[in-house]
Each structure stands twice: as C-alpha cells, then as structure tokens.
Amino acid sequence: MKSYLQLHSRRDSYLPLIANYASHSHNRRSLYHTIIIIVSVALNVCFLYHYFNHPKLPPPLRNPLNHYQSLNPFPLVTDDVLSTSLAPQFFNPDEHAVVTTLYTDAFAPAVATLGHSLRKADVSARLILLYLPEKVSPSALCVATSSGFIPQPVSRIPPPKNGDGAHPHFLDQFTKLTLWKLDQQGIKSLVYLDADTLVRRNFDELFALPFNFAAVPDVYTDHNGYILGFNAGVLFIRTSTTVFNQMVSKIEHADFPLLEAEQSYLNHYFGAEVVRLPYAYNGNLAIKRRSPEMWKNTTEERRIVHFTWPKPFLQGDYERVPWYNLEEKVMEVSTWEDGLWKEEMLWWGDMFKEMKHIYRSTLKQCFRQPKSKQVASATSPTTS
User: Fold this and answer.
1) pLDDT value of position 25
2) Where are the transmembrane segments (predicted)?
3) With b meaning 16 or more CB within 10 Å and e meaning fewer, what string describes 201-234?
C-alpha cells in the first residue's frame, strides 16, 4: 500500500512538471516566430526604402580612355600658332617662370635632374626653386640648384586642422600656394613642376594660355581610373597675391578630404574653373600601367613625364638614396614589374648621369657644404 501511494504521489507530483515544460516550450516557439516576423518585416522595409529612394542607376558611360584607339595623327599645337603666340613682341621670358619646390634633402638629385632636362628642352622662362630653409641642408640646396634653378626660401604654410587625416609626406605641401605670390617679382604666369617630373619637350606654349589656372586630369591604376579631378604635380598659374590671400583665408574652413593635402584643396577651389590640359603635359606613369597602348602612341607628343610611382631616386618610405647609389637604384627600379617602366627609368637615369657630368665642378663643391639645415636660412631673406 505504501509503495502504491508513493508511486501515485510521485506520479501526481511529476505530471504538473510535464505541463509546465510544454508551456515553456510553446512560449519559446512563439518568441522565435515573433522575432523572425519582426526581422523579416524590417528587412522588407529597408529594401523598399532603398528601392524607392535609390532607384537602380544606369551602367557607367563608356570611357574612351579605357578603350583607347590610336585615331588622331595630328600634333597638339600647330607651328604657325606657336610661332605667333611666342613672338618676341608678345612673349617676355622674364615675365614667366618654371617653378619647383624642395621640402626635404631626399628630392635634391631630382630637382637637379629636372633643371637639366629643362635646359635641354630649351625652355625660355626663369627657373625658380622654392624651399624650406629649416628642412633643407646647404649641401642639398647646392645640389638642387646646380643645374640652373634660382633658390628662394619661403615660409611653411601649415596644413589645416593640424594635418589630421593628411598623408604624412604631404604635410608641407600647402606651402605650394606661395606660387601665387610670385607676381610680386614681376612674374605674370608660371608652370609649376613637381620635383619628380622630367621634361622631354619644350612647353613654352603654356605661357601663352589666357586662362588663370590649368592642370592635367589625374589617373589611378585602381577602379578610379581616369578621373575628372586634376593632378597637382603640373600646374599652369597666372599669379596673384590677391588670389593667394583669399585661398589661404579659406583653408581652415573649407570642406575637403585632407589625405591628398593641397591637391585636394586646389581641386575643390578650382573644380569648376580649371582648364584641363592634355595628358602630354603630365605624363603620369599610372597611364602606362592602365593603358599601355595610349602611353606608347602619345610618347612623341609628351612634354613632361611624372614619376608618381615608382620614383627612381627614393627608397623605402620616401627615404633618400645616397648619391653614389643612385645609378644602381635606377637600374633596380627598371626591373620592377617585369620591366614595365624600364624605358622611363632609363630616361631619368640617363638625364641624371648627364647632369652629373656637365655640372661636376659645382657638384664637387656641394658635397663640401654643411649637412645641417639651420645654415641654409642665412642665404637670403625668406619670402613670406
């Protein structure tokens, strides 16, 4: 009897547990179903919102430069127009300049090589080098000016927002805006060239442009490709201190991405007014990788080659290559990517060797100059 009662008691006490478990299981299933319904509704709402507010865009237009064909056999500039626009009664070389900049010793050999290439191309304008005396040693300045650039120390223009977001190597680049102040020296127009460029042909026709600002559209090797924005490595500028003051006053408050520093700012400042020049005036090496046929077929017309990457005179992270290793470095870079840029690297290397030979006496004196950067500021008054 006890055994029966105990069994009955255990069974009776167990039955409610089964009912309770079933109830919890049902509640969990209901909760899961509710969550699934809520998530499904949310996803459908998001889809419908995106569909009606962001209708499907048409495919991008065909870019002729991505499908380059060698169709046009004619030159960029006809001889009769060129001879007229550069006639002595219209063109005074003293009113025009080719300007480059030097913010670090590492680019001094490149500036010297650029200067020699300008002389070989018989460019008629004055050659001016703007440099930061606190960052360039007397020895490097001597090398940079050995082939003809006249040095002018300038004050650094700091990047806005303390340079937050700018590429570390571009933090001094807002100093480039000083170019607009050269009207104070009687210069009406100038062509600015980055130190990592090389001149292949005369480009005096640029000085006859009636516009205030011109540049070449930029090129990227990634999905961006050929873009509307311009590269700031080659610029045509009609100088104006008034424009300079206005540009500088707006830097801190203008809304632009700082990664590409002054190039980004100039694109926002002149975006609607810039005159876009042919790629012959800024032969960005990215063109060769993206459109080898276009690069090949425009070689004869190309005035300026821009060694955006690779640079035959740098190593590592924008580090200086010792003078005695430069020719070896050129040969090394010429083999990169199965020799993709071999011809261009040898152009630079040959110009460098020629420059070394022609200006060897001056260069010999340069290497006896002090390596400290403080002495350079005493050479001439700073342009501010």
Assistant:
1) 56
2) 31-52
3) bbbbebbbbeebbbbbbbbbeeeeebeebbbbbb
